[in-house]
Amino acid sequence: MKNSNSSNLGTEPISKLLVKQAVPASIGILVMSLNILVDTIFVGNWIGSVAIAAINVVLPVSFFIAALGMSIGVGGSSIISRALGENNYKKALRVFGNQITLTLLFTIIFVVFGLFFVDNIIPAFGGKGDIFEPAKVYYTIVLYGVPFLALCMMGNTVIRAEGNPKFAMYAMLIPSIGNLILDVVFIKFLDLGMAGAAWATTGSYLCCFMYILWYFYSKYSTLKIQTNQFRLDTPIVKEIASLGFVTLSRQAVVSITYLFLNNILYKLGGETSVTAYAIVGRMLMFALFPVYGITQGFLPIAGFNYGAKNYKRVKETIFTAIKYAVILGTLVFVLLMVFPEFITKLFTSDTEVLKETPSAMRWVFAVTPIIAIQLIGAAYFQAIGKATPALLLTLTRQGFIFIPLLLVLPNMFGELGVWISFPIADVLSTIITAYFLYREVKTNLAPKD
Predict the structure, then answer these.
(1) 141, 203 in Cβ contact below 8 A?
(2) Does residue 418 contact residue 264 with C-beta atoms inside 8 Å?
(3) What are the b/e assignments for 332-350, b being 16+ CB within 10 Å?
(4) In the predicted model, what is the mean pLDDT of residues 253-265?
(5) CA 127 to chain centre
(6) Among candidates 340, 364, 356, which has minimal Cα distance to 419?
(7) How far does CA 4 lie from the centroid of its chain?
(8) How many alpha carbons fall within 13 Å on the CB side of residue 157?
(9) How far is CA 313 from CA 14, 298, 389, in A?
(10) How far apart are CA 47 and CA 327, in angstroms?
(11) End-to-end alpha-carbon separation of the chain, Å?
(12) Share of the chain above pLDDT 90, in %
């Protein structure tokens, strides 16, 4: 059995196909990012600026646990895309069953661990002083919903691997819209403060999970949920782990980065600096949604055609994705360079935060147009199942370059050293990724004589 939607990945024109895959992914990421953005605006205006910092402390922990689901999803979906390209439906179904088991197993273990060590984890991630109590309230409630979020993230990547990007988009829209509605109810009308913000978030995860569950039992899905496929298969688990470890490592490094950033900024500028980074961090999630959307759309196309050994289409997909992402990244760059003050005012009226954030935002987004090469390059190696280069390129920016810069530059330049670390890391990691991607295209995707 072969999904007609997935077979289109090997036949339709690349430009048309990339748009078809990327637009729903971009819309989904946009709405999800808008949800985070508006949620932060609600929290900042209805609870206070310290509440923004509190959520920023919690996010790397909860997102790391949820990223277990995304990692298992991305790793397994790379296998599923190539299996469908090879007409191996049986393997694709087996992989899907193993993804469900692994996601449930690991997320529940980490949630239990996270709840047990709550009083140690929050201060470690910068939840100190006035930030600690609201962060603890938010963290404790949100963690109960994280397994549902992990299953949603895993399921979303599988839906996209099947060639159904619109349904994947709906899966991202539902929790985003649900969270905003619940925010208004719990924070504005019921006046539940941080607990209300947390329950709104957890409720939105549950809404998404119910939709994902419906999809995989519906006629629209090729890969059905079958309990006889839940038994772990060692070779499949190893392949999922090797590829999924790339995504998990990325999120782990992001969480470690938050740990360093929140603590360094708290030391240099207190709650104000942590709040400034929280706002910039929301814009990192929001403003780059079209670039991330193209990266998401790129993955199943590259994986399917590589599995079908259609290397000419793989090569065309790489260059088309980079071209579109660079154009969109440039537009984002222009907007953020021109309007950082206006953007900051949407989040807070705190004078000190308004003074500090625009300059930080300009530094963080200073080289946005070139990051497409970095994202597409790392995604390519993951899509084709080459875990080691995918892992190394994924860790290059945050792990090998950015964190060392954070440990050195603030000692030399103070808070400015934190902000200039962002563009320096982007430039260096893009150069490295471009080199390895160019070498891969020349050697392994060249026409065979």
Answers:
(1) no
(2) yes
(3) bbeebeeebeebbeebbeb
(4) 83
(5) 23
(6) 364
(7) 28
(8) 32
(9) 7, 12, 21
(10) 38
(11) 33
(12) 18
Q: What is the pLDDT of residues 151-194, one digit of tens each?
A: 888 888 888 878 787 888 888 788 878 888 998 899 888 888 88
Q: What is the pLDDT of the chain when averaged over all its residues?
A: 84
CB 126 within 8 A of CB 61: no
**Number of Cβ within a 10 Å radius of residue 444:** 13
Q: What is the pLDDT of residues 30-54, one digit of tens each?
A: 766 666 667 777 877 788 777 877 8
Q: Cα angle at 345 between 341 and 346, to 5 degrees?
A: 125
CA-to-CA separations, 311 to 308, 423, 424, 447, in angstroms, rounded: 8, 33, 34, 8
Residue 4's pLDDT band, with cuts at 50, 70 and 90, is very low
Nearest to 153 by CA among 40, 46, 70, 58: 70
CA–CA gap between residue 46 and residue 187 (Å, rounded) = 7
C-alpha triplet 290, 68, 103: angle, nearest 5° = 120
Distances in whole angstroms, Cα of residue 50 to Cα of each of 141, 271, 278, 402:
18, 7, 10, 26
Q: What is the Cα–Cα distance from 156 to 25, expressed in whole angstroms?
A: 10
Distance CA 371, CA 328 (A): 11
Does residue 113 surpass a pLDDT of 60? yes
Instruction: Specify the higher pLDDT residue, 249 or 135.
Output: 135
**The pLDDT of residue 133:** 87
Average pLDDT over residues 117-140: 85
